[in-house]
Amino acid sequence: MSTALFYSAAPITLNSTTLAADDISLSAAVMSESFRHSGNLFPSVLVVPGADPRVTFRTPFKEAYDLIGLKSLKLTTFNLYFAKFVDAVRQSDSSHLKYGLSTSCVAHATIKGASVSQNGILMADIEVVLLSNDGMAHPLTAATASLPSLAGQPALKTLGPVTLNGTTTGGYVSASIDLGNNLETFKSDGDLYSRVAAYTGGDIVLSFEHADPATLWGAIGLTGAALTSNCIAYCRDYSTSTHLTLTTGLSLTIASGRVIPADFGASSLGVARGGIRVLGLSTSDTHPLVIASGASVPTP
Fold first, then answer.
1. Which residue among 3, 36, 67, 142 is buried most deeply as judged by most CB within 10 Å?
2. What is the pTM of this model?
3. Domains in the chain: how many in total?
């Protein structure tokens, strides 16, 4: 009788960079179609026209943004690892499970979004689409390998205040970024797997939850307001020495667009919460969101 093997999360390598990873998911995305004919009550034939495999994972936002940017990144090296456990111990040898790109295959990575709450860590949601070199070879190959090492610990960020049209108002309790990035894959000629992908753009939305929605909604109105100045969301740096938050951080700026109210509600004896969404606009192919490090975080 064989004993089940157990695996857990491990770092992920994109090109020459290894990222800390959490919530890793490999979707085989196998397509299947059954065929029923001649008045049969049940299908009698099954075909598998192929698959569209993808990988998703979460990683601290700063490292993801520095590597991938706000659009997409072509990968000629992509290695996904799952750490092997034997007798309740994580192994220290080369027996861990590795899924890497097959020969001449490539992949494309994009940041789908990110989120952070009070006392939380700003984490990015990454999607990787995998492409075959000839349409018939699966883009991933399984092997055993040693686990990679991180070059250093990731720089962590947490929630900060938000400046709307020049006014910084305290009370934000969570924030999220939806880049709306879309990587379309395409199959033809009876291929099993996609050979090409296209980055078809994004639809940027910043969303915030606020603990004083009455004041916030009073400032923007029930139908929202145009960005006459800009929206700047701040994410505070964590100190690597004191481990406390600092007065510096990332700034995420949308200069053109509109802020609109989302939901306003409260439970019995609870603190009311309200949301706003900031929709970014661009009249060219320039991304509506601008990100900068080392920004001075204002005091609400």
1. 67
2. 0.92
3. 1
